[in-house]
Specification:
The protein has 19 helices and 38 strands. By secondary structure, the protein is mainly beta.
Length: 1020
């Protein structure tokens, strides 16, 4: 490709020349791309980005878009931010809030204008909400009490997101600056920020060190000065400073934000990069010209920032207070009587909203401009109360919005009353009566005709049950929400009769319970009659006919054919003897536990411990009891392992054998425990070891219930349905207890390594903050349908002081039950939880990685704070085993399980950040600013081969895994245009954490991820 010509005339042909164009930059660095699309490859182009500056002078080419800056704009900047001249005091008036709020969805472009200092500052941006800093003091953010809020501390504030604008914010010169006026960047790589987003900017003083490095805390832990547009965070602010602190008194305003003129289309941002401390003699440190770093900010559309409450540049003295209304146009006098004439008052009507935000429009048509009107929208609520906030994020500030909370009820109707006493006035309360149902849904109708509109009525349907109890679900799917439905479960009994009692203590109130007494007969059948006259209607009576036998045990059959179901018949067999003469009822439950359980399916030689509990819940003792089905097929009983009631039993069990046990008194129980070993030979195609223990009480008038699928390692919570062959019995759920076999499972295994700090400028990129061993098993039946999925997690190492929580997300079709077991480091069950999912599950594997793998040693990080490290195999970590059972395997729940379907991710409580294995997050910069991957993005979770090299602490992955660099640069192939193609600059990664070079638009591409597994390994 380079050819035999000699482009720079140095006597060496290009294909032998390491710097073909002689610009001092190696061909390897410049690459074969064509950044300016002029037909000349970068390694041959002396000005690769065609910005008028040679690569030799720039030291490479940059990633910024050049825009033309009008000379008129430059003249305004030069006039209002003149070098060495104190900035106009009106620009620093604390009445003008120093932040920008978007009143519409918009992208935001920042353009470099000028630099009045040569300190190599670094500039970034941050987003937050109107509530982010409410109630916080500087001390709350400056957690180390140093007086300087570091970027790390700032990131820990919930709701704050940051990104870089110009890491090297210096003008092009011989000392390493790269910017020229007009270099611009759209925040978030073109991200559209939503309405209501607040945007601020920060500057790290002397933050750019060159060679892709940013200044970090020094060896003593001292952070560099960081200047924020949010005044109370700046170095000179006191520890007690907050949003209400007067920045003019403590000189904490370090950034001037001002519109370029009356049209309010572009914003000038000027930093004073030396902290404005006041000396003992009263003078202030620094030249106070606020031009050390100057940029412009513009939104698209422009209107999204045009209502910002900031000052307007005044170059000719015609707008003394900088409020955007010319002095000649302002109403003479002092409208708010605060002692400051309107021409000098940034808030002419004294309502707490600055004139630039209110503007000169007349929103309510009362012939008084908004900036002079104390109730601009004429809703009866003063502007001073409503303020310049946008509660419903519709792009209209509350003081102009006639429905501030967007709930469909006008502010004039809701007013400032607080109907539910929650401290939030109704006009901004999305749930005025505090019943948990949004006002927008309840509306102004009066369903029960009691004179109170639903949105203020605690019982909208007048059934005696509060709306907060009934909520807006539709339990019977009749199209009417429960809080408006007088029979929420459609069982024929009104909510007013059923009430909120929970007669059967099943966690469901009677008004929602289709079987209020859990006797197996629906309320709709039993109704409101009282068959036995005991004062309890059948719906809540557990013995409807009063014969001493539970309705649940009698059932609905009619064996004597007299037209009365057993539960209503006092002589069910028509033998002349009344029912209830004393029956035994045996209930057997079985639990299975694999010996040495780790989540791995069973193999020949493995052992299972079965625990069978038999209870007599009847009114008579059971005397002749046989237990069968104890030893499953393809297993051998471990001789001498049987205990009955805790006592050794010498019976020799085998498949098909029956064990007779001693009588069980009424209310008594007995526990059988024994061990079986998997046979050496198991027929091909066998997928499970199944146990179906049954109990037979060999006397008349008895009931036996065998329930083999109970909570435990082996299974899941009962679903309440009878799936077995003895459906005629009164049984809750007697499915076989099943344990999967290794030969029935596909599996995959990998090592996942996480970086736990989601911002690139101060990451160490060592990818060892949490290193996991992950194995997934997919248990299939003879038709290759996935019946269940098992995922095991173990921590191999922790290289970070921040704690993390581990999660698994899985999408599927149909429904599923799941079980999560946490094993301690000796293999014993530490915790077991169960759950269900419809279409998806999100399961927490553990709550604390510090608990799962305790610290091995305590180290002192070179930048200050102590943190814990763990790279030691002397003690195993705890392990998590997650099993998901799919209810309908034949429906192919994973839609082709040849792609690993689950997302393993961690949550960092201290930063409130989520880091996914599948990660490309445009809301948070991932750009690397050092090393051979400078300028490119990195994932926060990578897959390493099973036989991997440990990522070394504080050593970037490109040093511990040098072959990773070439792979990233080439997108996994010999891709030569990665350096010039903008899409390839934003490198991203597939499910393996490996480079995907085939697709480069992670926002819209359907085939965004490559297969996680290329070759499956089966258990055999």
């Amino acid at each position: 490709m380079e050819g035999t010509i000699d482009s720079d005339g140095d006597g060496a042909s290009n294909h032998y020349d390491l710097d073909s164009d002689g610009d001092g930059l190696a061909d390897e660095v410049e690459g074969a791309g064509d950044a300016d699309s002029d037909g000349t490859a970068n390694f041959l182009d002396l000005d690769s980005d065609n910005d008028g500056y040679t690569d030799a002078r720039e030291g490479s080419f940059d990633r910024y878009d050049p825009v033309e800056v009008p000379s008129s704009f430059l003249e305004i900047v030069s006039s209002v931010l003149s070098e060495g001249s104190n900035v106009d005091e009106s620009f620093l008036n604390p009445a003008y809030q120093n932040d920008l709020t978007l009143t519409g969805n918009a992208e935001v472009r920042v353009t470099f204008i000028d630099e009045g200092a040569g300190y190599r500052n670094a500039v970034g941006y941050y987003t937050f909400t109107q509530d982010t800093f409410v109630g916080l003091t500087k001390a709350d953010v400056d957690t180390d009490g140093s007086g300087r809020v570091s970027i790390q501390e700032f990131l820990a504030v919930p709701g704050v997101e940051i990104g870089w604008v110009f890491p090297n914010a210096s003008e092009l010169d011989s000392s390493g600056g790269i910017l020229v006026p007009g270099d611009s960047y759209v925040l978030g790589d073109g991200r559209i920020f939503p309405t209501g987003t607040k945007i601020g900017f920060f500057l790290i003083a002397r933050g750019w060190l060159g060679n892709g490095r940013l200044r970090q805390p020094n060896s003593a832990g001292t952070s560099p000065d960081v200047i924020f547009t949010t005044d109370f965070l700046n170095p000179v602010a006191e520890a007690t400073a907050d949003l209400s602190t007067d920045s003019s008194t403590n000189l904490s305003r370090q950034v001037a934000l001002l519109f370029d003129g009356q049209n309010r289309s572009e914003i000038i941002v000027g930093f004073e990069d030396i902290s404005r401390f006041r000396r003992a003699n009263g003078s202030v440190v620094g030249d106070q010209d606020f031009n050390d770093a100057v940029f412009s900010v513009k939104s698209n559309p422009v209107s999204a920032l045009s209502a910002a409450g900031i000052v307007t540049a005044n170059t000719d003295g015609t707008d003394a207070d900088g409020d955007g209304v010319l002095d000649a146009d302002e109403l003479p006098g002092d409208s708010d009587g605060d002692g400051t004439p309107n021409v000098n008052d940034p808030d002419d009507d004294g309502d707490g909203i600055v004139t630039p935000t209110e503007g000169t429009d007349d929103a309510d048509g009362d012939n008084t401009a908004n900036y002079l009107d104390t109730d601009s929208d004429n809703d009866g609520i003063d502007d001073s109360v409503e303020g310049a906030v946008d509660t419903d994020l519709d792009g209209t500030f509350d003081f102009l919005d006639t429905d501030s909370d967007g709930d469909g009820v006008d502010d004039s109707s809701e007013s400032t009353a607080d109907s539910d006493g929650d401290g939030v006035a109704d006009y901004v309360d999305s749930d005025d009566d505090g019943d948990g149902i949004p006002t927008a849904e309840e509306g102004t109708i009066d369903s029960d005709g009691d004179g109170t509109a639903n949105y203020l009525d605690e019982d909208s349907d007048g059934d005696g049950l509060t709306d907060s109890l009934e909520t807006n679900v539709d339990s019977d799917l009749d199209g009417t929400s429960d809080y408006l439905d007088t029979d929420s479960d459609a069982d024929g009994s009104s909510d007013a009769l059923e009430g909120s009692l929970d007669s059967d203590n099943d966690g469901t109130a009677d008004y929602l319970d289709l079987d209020s007494d859990a006797d197996g007969v629906p309320d709709a059948v039993e109704g409101e009659i009282d068959t036995d006259g005991d004062g309890q209607v059948n719906r809540v009576d557990t013995d409807d006919d009063g014969d001493g036998l539970f309705t649940a045990n009698e059932g609905t059959s009619d064996p004597d054919g007299d037209g009365l179901a057993n539960y209503l018949d006092t002589d069910s067999n028509n033998d002349g003897e009344p029912d209830g003469g004393g029956d035994a009822i045996l209930v057997a439950t079985t639990k299975a536990m694999q010996v040495g359980f780790t989540g791995i399916p069973l193999s020949p030689g493995d052992q299972i411990v079965y625990t069978v509990t038999i209870e007599n819940t009847g009114s008579d003792q059971a005397t002749t009891i046989d237990v069968s089905g104890m030893v499953p097929a393809y297993t051998d009983y471990l001789s001498g392992s049987l205990t009955v009631g805790g006592l050794a039993n010498a019976a020799a069990l085998s498949t098909g054998s029956t064990l007779r046990i001693d009588p069980i008194l009424t209310g008594g129980s007995v526990v059988l425990e024994y061990t079986v070993t998997l046979s050496a030979t198991i027929p091909s195609g066998t997928t499970w070891i199944e146990s179906a223990v049954t109990v037979d009480y060999l006397q008349s008038n008895t009931t036996e219930v065998s329930d083999n699928d109970i909570t435990g390692h082996c299974g899941i919570l009962d679903d309440g349905e009878d799936h077995a062959s003895d459906a005629g019995l009164a049984t809750d759920d007697d499915d076989p207890t099943r344990l999967p076999l290794w030969d029935s499972a596909y599996y995959e295994s990998c090592t996942l390594a996480f970086e736990d700090l989601k911002n690139a400028g101060w990451n160490d990129w060592d990818m060892n903050d949490l290193v996991l061993d992950v194995t997934s098993f997919y248990v299939v039946n003879a038709s290759d349908d996935v019946e269940s999925m098992i995922v095991t997690y173990e921590v191999l190492a922790r290289g970070a002081g921040m704690d993390s929580q581990l999660h698994l997300d899985l999408s599927f079709s149909g429904t599923a039950h799941w079980q999560r077991i946490l094993l301690d480091n000796t293999g014993q069950i530490d915790e077991l939880i169960n759950g269900t999912g419809d279409g998806a599950v999100s399961i927490q594997a553990w709550n604390s990685s510090k608990d799962v793998l305790p610290a091995y040693t305590t180290l002192k990080h070179k930048w200050g704070a102590a943190r814990t490290e763990r790279f030691d195999d002397s003690e195993d970590s705890k392990a998590a085993v997650i099993t998901i059972y799919f209810n309908d395997p034949s429906a192919n729940p994973l839609s082709g399980f040849s792609e690993s379907p689950h997302d393993t991710w961690i949550h960092i409580p201290s930063t409130q950040q989520d880091i996914h294995r599948v990660e490309y997050d445009l809301t948070s910069s991932q750009i690397v600013y050092e090393g051979p991957l400078f300028g490119r993005s990195m994932p926060f979770a990578v897959k390493l081969d099973t036989a991997f090299v440990w990522p070394a602490e504080n050593q970037p992955i490109w040093l511990s895994h040098p072959d990773y660099v070439d792979y990233v640069k080439s997108a996994g192939v010999l891709n030569t245009d990665w350096a010039s193609n903008y899409d390839y600059w934003r490198v991203w990664f597939d499910r393996q954490g490996m480079m995907n070079g085939d697709v480069y638009n992670p926002v819209s591409a359907d085939d965004i991820y490559k297969d996680y597994v290329d070759t499956w390994t089966t258990g055999d």
